[in-house]
Specification:
Order of helices and strands: EHEHEHEHHEHEHEEEEHEEHEHEHH
Structural class: alpha/beta
Shape: globular
Largest sheet: 7 strands, mixed
Number of domains: 2
CATH topology of the largest domain: Rossmann fold
Number of strands: 14
Distance between the termini: 39 Å
Number of helices: 12
CATH superfamily of the largest domain: Thiamin diphosphate (ThDP)-binding fold, Pyr/PP domains
């Protein structure tokens, strides 16, 4: 099944808001793009339209959370992570308010709109803030589990999701979800592939393709980019070779974090597959991924080159 992660999150909020009146969704003129139209119509008293004012969005969400509400602030990731960084740092993370920041249309989801609408530095920017957790669910099933968990724990979090529907990575009723613990999709001793968000499906397919060629790759879904599952990374490092895959800049993302951790505790060969340090080409998400090698075919080629050395 292919469902957008933002819709899966809305489905959980709709279900929970029926009995939990502390849940409040706030949008910055983004209820349509954030798949929150149904929520706004069904629960108007639990919905706040702030308009195109992302800084206000975050501060109002923090204020509501300080009054005991469970606030979900929904806005395009490109604007939420840049225009509102000071409010996220002070009003949410430093103040430890119960705010779930939902960055929609993350990465290069906006495609043809170009660099102004791409969020390829949000992991680096928000990950540098003490107390801010970062999550990139890979499919609707994981997005649902993550949302349920965040509604219960009361701590600040940034969740980045894409714009379009994504194929299921997991099977119904068979998702081994544990909060802040990476999921190992397949075991392998020849090398490890660590991915997050929409790149997990490509990593999974690469692992399957490598298996057919007699190469046993460990594939890890690092949906919890911060806090990062150190044990999972150390397990990957024991293979001696790691490939990281992410819809983010080369600087400060998943790959950088994995490199820092392995360099300090278990040095091994690490190759980061990322978007380049330049404005990316114009096109659909798929066209952009294929152009920069963020697909299963390129992951397989990189893995085979690593094993040849």
């Amino acid at each position: 099944m292919s469902v957008a992660n933002k819709q899966a999150i809305c489905n959980v909020l709709m279900k929970r808001a029926k009995t939990d009146k502390d849940i409040v969704v706030l949008c910055s003129d983004s209820r349509g793009s954030g798949s929150m139209v149904d929520f706004a119509e069904k629960y108007p008293e639990q919905f706040v339209e702030v308009g195109i004012a992302e800084q206000n969005l975050v501060s109002i969400a923090a204020g509501l959370a300080a009054c005991g509400k469970k606030a979900i602030a929904v806005s395009p990731a490109c604007f939420l992570s840049t225009r509102s960084m000071e409010q996220i740092k002070v009003d949410v993370a430093y103040s430890r308010t119960n705010v779930m920041l939902l960055g929609i249309s993350g990465g290069v989801s906006y495609g043809a709109l170009g660099m102004t609408h791409h969020s390829t530095s949000d992991i680096a920017a928000l990950g540098s803030i003490p107390g801010m957790r970062l999550y990139l669910p890979s499919d609707r099933l994981q997005a649902e589990k993550l949302t349920e968990a965040l509604l219960e724990d009361g701590e600040p979090a940034y969740v980045r999701v894409g714009r379009n529907a994504v194929e299921d990575v997991y099977e119904e009723d068979a998702l081994p979800f544990e909060m802040n613990k990476a999921t190992v999709l397949r075991e392998g001793q020849d090398l490890a592939i660590i991915a997050c968000g929409e790149m997990v499906l490509a990593a999974k397919r690469a692992g399957q393709a490598l298996e057919k060629q007699g190469i046993h790759a460990k594939v890890i879904d690092m949906y919890c980019v911060k806090p990062m599952d150190e044990e999972a990374v150390m397990g990957a490092a024991r293979t001696g070779r790691i490939i990281t895959v992410e819809e983010h800049s080369f600087y400060g993302g998943l790959g950088s974090m994995v490199c820092q951790l392995t360099a300090a505790k278990s040095p091994c060969k690490v190759v980061n597959l990322t978007l380049p340090d330049t404005p990316v080409i114009t096109g659909s998400s798929r066209e952009i991924f294929d152009h920069y090698g963020l697909n299963a075919e390129h992951i397989v080629r990189v893995a085979k080159r690593m094993l040849e050395k």
